[in-house]
Design goal:
single chain, mainly alpha, five-stranded parallel sheet, 16 helices, 5 strands
Length: 399
């Protein structure tokens, strides 16, 4: 599970390949760049490790040199025409998963024409390429790093680097806080990259290493989200924050348990330890997006008609469920001017949060090394469980 996967052919411009990988290691850190020569441990399954690395990468850099297209096997046949060729299989897997593929042209190479590629690789010819010329190496490399940072969120993280403890020393509270804030910002912008990296770090740290940081991030998101709601709602903050955080933790535990059960039914193996940490990150981020949208909506209503929320809650509490339509009419009357503006901006925040969830949901395929079909089956089964419980709760309440 890394940010960058380097797809390359060893016989094609090895000097430029090594130079580029050394620089990427220096800029981003060796743990964020997968380069098979040094990243596959002795005794590991070579094919399985490569496929897992491609599946877990945020971006694939495909290095194309002058001999990339016509590279031949021992019998004289073109390597790209072999379905088992590693370069071909890695690109096919990335394209099939929707992972961005950036061709990097080395030593004056050009992009191959679609007609010169096998049918499964022809979408590769439409990928926007980046050229690294020997006489403009630093400028071209800086442009590539800027693209990775601005477009895909893959950049050196100073706060994370400063937060790493020196050997034998304990992290300070300010360093931990800075790391949490940096992680939160990256989570809201690039969920998959952050979650994959944190889960990987946690697995490497041992038992509990992935779950504890995820739980800390969930607590932070729940706290910030309920603070946003408490700012615009009537009454003291603790009235919203304490119950909101407690209920959020219970809801996250229940939902992750059901999702783990759905994945177990699909994969026929225990999955909770792989499902719970990514779900904690996704639930926390989704809650923040929801609370931000709700806060903007409620603030707009209050600006349009002061104390409308207080009157709504009082009337709804007095009349019960039967009086909800009448109480809701109070809110409808405030949908003008700032009230309407707040509604539109809040709805935009919710739509952005929905798109964020869809982008981040793919992390479960990476965490469980699953294909699209298994992911769809597990998700649909989970949604079915939620719908069944909702229907059961409605029936009990009606009875």
């Amino acid at each position: 599970m890394t940010d960058l996967f380097i797809n390359y052919r060893r016989q094609d411009c090895p000097a430029a390949t090594g130079r580029l990988c050394d620089r990427l290691h220096a800029e981003l850190g060796a743990d964020r760049v997968f380069f098979d020569v040094g990243d596959i441990v002795p005794g590991a399954d070579f094919v399985d490790t490569l496929e897992r690395a491609v599946a877990g990468a945020s971006v694939v850099l495909s290095l194309v040199g002058p001999r990339w297209l016509q590279a031949a096997a021992g019998d004289g046949s073109r390597r790209l025409d072999d379905p088992q060729d590693f370069v071909r299989r890695e690109i096919e897997l990335a394209l099939a998963r929707g992972t961005p593929v950036i061709p990097v042209l080395l030593e004056g190479a050009g992009m191959p024409a679609a007609e010169a590629l096998p049918p499964s690789l022809r979408p590769f010819a439409r990928c926007q390429a980046v050229a690294l010329a020997n006489d403009r190496w630093e400028a071209d490399l800086r442009s590539l790093l800027d693209v990775l940072a601005q477009r895909y969120g893959i950049h050196p993280d100073p706060a994370r680097a400063q937060a790493q403890p020196a050997q034998g020393r304990t992290r300070t509270a300010p360093a931990m806080a800075a790391a949490m804030v940096a992680d939160l910002a990256e989570l809201l912008a690039h969920p998959r990259a952050l979650i994959v990296r944190r889960v990987q770090d946690g697995v490497a740290a041992g038992s509990g290493g992935a779950l504890l940081p995820a739980l800390a991030m969930l607590l932070l998101c729940l706290l910030l989200g309920n603070l946003l709601l408490g700012v615009v709602m009537e009454g003291p903050l603790y009235r919203w924050v304490v119950p909101g955080v407690a209920l959020g933790l219970l809801a996250a535990a229940a939902l992750s348990a059901m999702l783990a059960a759905a994945w177990r039914a699909v994969r026929r193996a225990p999955c909770w330890r792989r499902v719970a940490p990514p779900f904690a990150y996704l639930y926390g981020g989704a809650w923040l997006y929801f609370c931000a949208g709700a806060c903007v909506m409620l603030l707009g209503l209050e600006l349009a008609q002061p104390h409308v929320l207080e009157r709504y809650l009082a009337q709804a509490a007095q009349a019960g469920s039967a009086g909800l339509p009448t109480a809701s009419a109070l809110l409808a009357q405030a949908l003008h001017g700032p009230g309407m503006a707040g509604f539109v901006l809040g709805l935009a925040a919710w739509l952005a949060g929905g798109a964020w969830c869809l982008r981040g949901w793919a992390v479960f395929r990476v965490a469980l090394n699953a294909g699209r079909l298994a992911a769809w089956c597990a998700t649909l089964l989970w949604l079915s469980l939620l719908a069944s419980l909702g229907a059961l709760a409605g029936w009990v309440a009606a009875a």
